[in-house]
Amino acid sequence: MFEHNQTFHSTPARPGAARIGPRRPQLASASRTVCLLLLRTLSHKINNLVLLVKWIFENQHKLQTVRWCSSSLRYKELEESAQTLEHVAAPVAAAAPDVKPRPYRAPETSFKHDDLQVTLAAPYQLQRKPDAPDLGFGKYFTDHMLKIQYQKQLGGWQKPEITPFEPLSIHPAAKALHYAIQLFEGLKAYRGVDDKIRLFRPDLNMRRMNLAAERSGLPMFDGDELIKCIKRLIQIDQEWVPHSETSTLYIRPTLIGTEATFGIMAPESALLFVILSPVSAYYKASDDGAVSIYADPSVVRAFPGGVGNRKVGSNYGPTIDATARAAQMGHHQVLWLFGPNHELTEVGAMNIFMVYINEHGEKQLSTPPLNGLILPGVTRQSILELASEWDDLTVKEEVITMDRVIELNRSGRLLEMFGSGTAVVISPISRMGFIDQEIYIPTMKQTRPVFQRIKDTLLAIQYGHIDHPYSHVVS
Ligand SMILES: Cc1ncc(COP(=O)(O)O)c(C=O)c1O
Fold it and tell me: What broad class of enzyme is this (predicted)?
């Protein structure tokens, strides 16, 4: 036993204080042994604890409960999730997608044409205008562009600006670059016989843009305001509208999500821009002036519940390989089929039409109905509206299958097939490849083909030969 006041450490002697006597050796060695034992046990325990912590740390991915318990707050979550897990219902079959058109949601706020600011290009920034035969499609661009920024934090749409044409500076993390949160449009400005410049039903393009914006979480806007801004842009670059009835000025409005974050959600910033390109014919045709198309049932362009009916970039990239394969086989375009019955949906980037003699002996113009897989083309809608006024033609939206095309062709009742779109107006089709069959369609053999009558009517409206409510005069 230690004596009271005895300590392991010698304390400095205070003057006059009694000296503490020498420690007894047996007592000191016993206490050292006890201490060593204690230390060894403690260090063993610490070692084990360290090993345990290390093991837990390395294996926490296997021990959900350990992770959940790492914070006392997580206990509640764990209990709740355990309850939810017990009640998870067995998976049910997905409901059939709703392909009915959804009601159009009007934009809450929009930019205004009245706020438009214009900065004109300096003389040295002006581009040389190519000759009409060299134009191609989308190779040259005019001197100015329209830009409208959207910044949610600044209250939404900012003032529209027309600036000299210039490259965009974009953050590498912008959502448009990763998740294709973007959309685009295509319409044209035509220089009429009276030298007036006209747009063709731009209101329908605006409507389609807003529907695509809604689907992709991009901001919507007032289409009339954008039309006014586009008209101003065209007025500024009006000398770029070709003085020709075989060339036009193609207008490409584009809306991209610019917010630089990786989250897949509606972007808080976006850019709407419009660029202009003088263009000539879009598709090359065969010697007879018609195109040849290839139907490959193993690829689809769109599917129910998808975005085949919206003009979004993600619909177009994945068509390139199929189009290249069709080209290797000597065809100009892909005929996009869908479903076990090989329903015709679209051809290339066009809507598809067929003319045939129906069961009542009448000449009928048919196109597949808008079922969600098909882009609601402005040209398509105009053809249906115009042709339904003609007494000698029955006009119908109906499902068209490959079997039906083959059967009508075999019985001599199939007269014409053609594609329609802003870029081409009308593109007659004279040959189809389908699996191992070659189908020749007598489109170019008709004496007064329907496709030509439709094309002439549309061009007459677009180039101002006839006054029509579809035309919007720019200047
Ligand atoms: C897939 C697709 N279908 C059809 C069309 C034709 O539409 P529009 O007549 O509006 O040019 C286009 C062109 O925009 C298209 O890209």
Answer: transferase
